[in-house]
Amino acid sequence: MRLDKLLSNMGYGSRKEVKILLKSKAVEVNGVFAKDVSMHVDSNTDQIIVFGEKVIYTEFIYLMMNKPPGVISATEDKYDQTVIDLLDPLAQHFKPFPVGRLDKDTEGLLILTNNGHLSHQLLSPKKHVPKLYFAVIEGKVTEDDVKKFKEGVTLEDGYFTKPGKLTILLSGEVSEIELTIMEGKFHQVKRMFESVGKKVTYLKRMSMGSLRLDETLELGDYRHLTEEELETLQKKE
Question: Catalytic residue at 103?
């Protein structure tokens, strides 16, 4: 790959700006100051240093975010703040997108990547990727609800859901539950509870497949997936 393309892909600026970096002797290749932006380099074998820091080339980016309420799961929007707006400029440079979506008022685990293949694998209904949610429910959740969810429920538009695993954590006028589902229809968790006469007042996604939300992440914070987390996700493909 050309040196200017590699550095541009890594967020060091446009090709014109990379040329200025070379003129200022900010770029070294294998211990020698680079002079020609068109020189070809191998990201696997050549050592590239910019401003004294080694460049580790990567094509894809994989982020875990604790999505806050009030932010939409989209790459851009005219009216609302998006999850992409929460990222630093370097992360935005890779043009990541949310894998699936969480409703505007829903919190929790959201994966962002620019790897369309991985996104498809995680979202494909054929892959049966489980999604675990914690929710606060207005109304008493009962064992009868557990049974109904296990069999699948009919939503208001006539859609019959796949079975869901409902676990009651607290049952009362206000209940707390965990729900695992294999699909992600629009507002699905909320609509499933509406089908049994109850209302979701708080919703948080805790896990997606093998990936569980890092509870040390504050709302709106994000981090790169570890190699172990990424390998585990990719094994599900």
Answer: yes
